[in-house]
Design a protein that fits this description.
By secondary structure, the protein is an alpha/beta fold. The protein contains 7 helices and 10 strands. Strand 1 and strand 2 (18-28) form a beta hairpin. Helix 2 (93-103) packs across helix 3 (108-121). It is globular. It starts with a strand and ends with a helix. It binds adenosine-5'-diphosphate (ADP) (2 copies). One adenosine-5'-diphosphate binds next to helix 1. This is Sn-glycerol-3-phosphate ABC transporter ATP-binding protein UgpC. One of its GO terms (cellular component) is ATP-binding cassette (ABC) transporter complex, substrate-binding subunit-containing. Residues 4-226 form the ABC transporter domain.
């Protein structure tokens, strides 16, 4: 079944700028889709429309078989991980991960179970009482992912999640993301500038330029026959 369907999606910003033009893509369950393309080509705009953080000017967006154009972000079955992983500095790791669930009025005992399960998957069990400032960059990034996975969403959106990490940590986190994808069986859409990340993580790569999809292909086909 298609996990996500983008049909003739357009985005024109209020100043008249057309950031995304006739974007069409059917994403199957458990795919790992990579968006690549030069800065300003519309990758983040597309992710933000999927997340519901940016209004869709025209076209149809479906998650599963539900049209979600007018559905609020919190009611879409989606979680987003940003590159600057804005954690709440005054909250513990536990509370950072629990926050979104509390907003959704999930019962406390269930929150506790979900947070601890996510902490186990991400190896954060011993860090639950810490504040973000007492964590390394990689640990913070894992908390940011933890915040996303506690909700067990159908689709994860990741906008250059590793770009602020040093090279060594990036390699390590790339492996963790790959494992996470397999373990969760979730659909992921991932924006990156890093060709190694695109090749090793992606099941399909979407190449964008000036708001237009240029090519959609497997990493093998794309990088062997450019
Ligand atoms: P990418 O993620 O590929 O770098 P973006 O989706 O962030 O690109 O931006 C696509 C284009 O839309 C850019 O030219 C950017 O300047 C423009 N843009 C982004 N946000 C706005 C906005 N709020 N108003 C007008 N133009 C915008
Ligand atoms: P609130 O943040 O709403 O004040 P509490 O601090 O009372 O909530 O915690 C609610 C539940 O969450 C507790 O019963 C506990 O099981 C769990 N919890 C809170 N912090 C931690 C933590 N650091 N490690 C493990 N479990 C925690």
């Amino acid at each position: 079944m298609a996990s996500l369907s983008l049909q003739h999606i357009n985005k024109t910003y209020p100043n008249g700028f057309e950031a995304v033009k006739d974007f069409n893509l059917e994403i199957e369950d458990k795919e790992f889709i990579i968006f690549v393309g030069p800065s300003g080509c519309g990758k983040s705009t597309t992710l933000r429309m999927i997340a519901g953080l940016e209004e869709i000017t025209s076209g149809t967006l479906k998650i599963g078989d539900r049209v979600v154009n007018d559905v609020e972000p919190k009611d879409r079955d989606i979680a987003m991980v940003f590159q600057n992983y804005a954690l709440y500095p005054h909250m513990t790791v536990y509370d950072n991960m629990a926050f979104g669930l509390k907003l959704r009025k999930v019962p406390k005992d269930q929150i506790d179970k979900m947070v601890k399960e996510a902490a186990k998957i991400l190896d954060l069990e011993k860090l639950l009482d810490r504040k973000p400032k007492a964590l390394s960059g990689g640990q913070r990034q894992r908390v940011a992912m933890g915040r996303a996975i506690v909700r067990d969403p159908k689709v994860f959106l990741m906008d250059e999640p590793l770009s602020n990490l040093d090279a060594k940590l990036r390699v390590q986190m790339r492996i963790e993301i790959s494992k996470l994808h397999q373990r969760l069986g979730a659909t992921i859409i991932y924006v990156t500038h890093d060709q190694t990340e695109a090749m090793t993580l992606g099941t399909r790569i979407v190449v964008m330029k000036d708001g237009v999809v240029q090519q959609v292909d497997s990493p093998q086909n794309l990088y062997n026959n450019p």
